[in-house]
Request: fold
Amino acid sequence: MTTRPNLRIDLDRLWSSLMEMAEIGATPAGGCNRQALTPEDARGRALFKRWCEQAGCTVTVDGLGSMFARREGTENLPPVLIGSHLDTQPTGGKFDGVLGVLGALEVMRVLKESGLRTRRPIELVNWTNEEGCRFAPAMLASAVFAGVLPPARALDARDAQGARFGDELAKMDLECSAPIGGREIAAYVELHIEQGPILEAEGFDVGFVAVGQGHRWYDVAYRGFGSHAGSTPMPTRRDAMAGAARLVLELQAIGRKHGPAGMATVGEMHVAPNSRNIIPGEIRFTIDIRHPDHDMLEAMDAEVRAAFARCRDAERLEGELSDVSYNPPVPFDADILDIIRRQTAALGLKGRDIVSGAGHDAFHLAKVCPTAMIFTPCKDGISHHESEDITREWAEAGTNVLLRAAIELAERV
Ligand code: HGY
Ligand code: MN
Ligand code: MN
Reply:
């Protein structure tokens, strides 16, 4: 049990930091556009670094820009790691990832104020490029940290304009000198908003994330022949858009067939030459499928591949389906989940086990150390949208659970 049962976070201070961070990359509709390795990301990192140093932490940055703020323990043992990500979607919200990073910062602030020195060091991490919207795949820096992908897979990733991850990282005023992973971590706990409707709908304060659902990302390219929209007879056309339209509807059917847990999404699409009076000669788009059950995800994968070929042939196209990433379903650490459940109860809060629909850096950390996640509810389950919102009370509840769980883990040897 924690050695200081009465420790609590300062909600006003946490909320003030959340709102100040939200001003960096703020969008007119009230969201955030602070995509990985952009000037907005750089400004957010600079503010975060300043706050970490004011909280008495030493900040280091690894070879992919992930930032680690360390509070020494009384013993030189592998640290307890807490944190999440500050990068956002282009029309993201104020809290996805950010609550986990600034909630962990609040933990560091409370420890500094209280003078409590835990046995283990505690480190706070801001992972680079969790979202994967600018540089695919998602959770890229944590995947390299966990040894799942080689550094080159990140450094050579390119965004839709062809900008290279490594070159964009070099433009950031970061001293990326720390090694990427390869060190022992005692435990990782990530606080995050649920990004779904369950906790709010059922009246819970906290979610104990027992499983992270699996997901697969693909890139599709279909090629036909671009010609005049007004003089090319319909039967002779090789219309790449028609192939894509067929496949989008088949993917919807696959998602629904494997519902309610199964999900299938086409989120990004590029048409060439993208002229209103030319039949699309080429179309490139993304596929995102998800399921909490490994076998179901495999079945969906097979159905996606068959549908890709069927739609290509129906429109006499050429094309490729490329694998971008595969993350199997992740069971989280039972022992840490018990700590989170117990600390939730000790605070007089209500919690329930839950599956994560979204991907998180914790999915990769679970491959190298005992890992679990704490969810807070979010309004109407909305996320990856500018109206994403949480209540102050939910932020306080989740962050107090993080505080107490981190202390308990850092007191254990
Ligand atoms: O895609 C996801 O689930 C996460 O937001 N990167
Ligand atoms: Mn996130
Ligand atoms: Mn996200």
About this structure: Residues 294-314 form the longest helix (21 residues). The two ends are 13 Å apart (CA to CA). Residues 89, 96, 131, 358, 384 surround manganese (II) ion (ligand 3) (CB under 6 Å).
